[in-house]
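FIELD: query
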Amino acid sequence: MRVLLIEDERALSQQLQAQLQARGHVVDCAYDGEEGLYMGRDYPLDIAVIDLGLPGINGISLIRQLRAAGKTFPILILTARDSWRDKVEGLEAGADDYLVKPFNLQELLARLAALLRRSSGWTSPLIRCGPLCLNHTEQSVSLHDRPVELTAYEYRLLAYLMLNAGKVVSKLELTEHIYEQDFDRDSNVLEVLIGRLRRKLDADGSLKPIETLRGRGYRLTLKRESE
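FIELD: result
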């Protein structure tokens, strides 16, 4: 998933960026409100983490402007302010959740994972599509209850397809959401990854979990299981 991190404390931003990348996320960083507003409006994002005490445009104003621009991705607030009024103001501006500094990193990761799942219509960390199960907490995949070994990029790709099960996802959308900004979009890496996933998930060709729609993209064909 693609995360926008807007935090002016560079050391904290770098720490969070490293941890999010280690969890398989693509991370775009901004260090002030104006840069964050530009990225929030123009980048293909899945979620944003926004500090309230930003230089330039403060976090509350930034959130309001993003929502006014029609951006619906989940927003998690980071704040050093612990009064209930500040929390309410942030939520009323359009944020979905908040954490008060200092915070536990694992709690941040868990809250982000929960927001991402809910924004795609899932409530459980176990994403089930037919015989395929993806565990967001453990970052593991199983097929017919047997573990499937995936590389980091294979996992990112499958997770995005499963979160959007049944929907057609274009090559451009996949590239923007699972690769860094400077990825070579003219390469055939995405097609190679799709091929590897198909071989790992459907060695005998009986399941056919990923459909190619020529000129449109890919679709996970396995039915979403009710939670």
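FIELD: remark
The first helix runs from residue 10 to 22.
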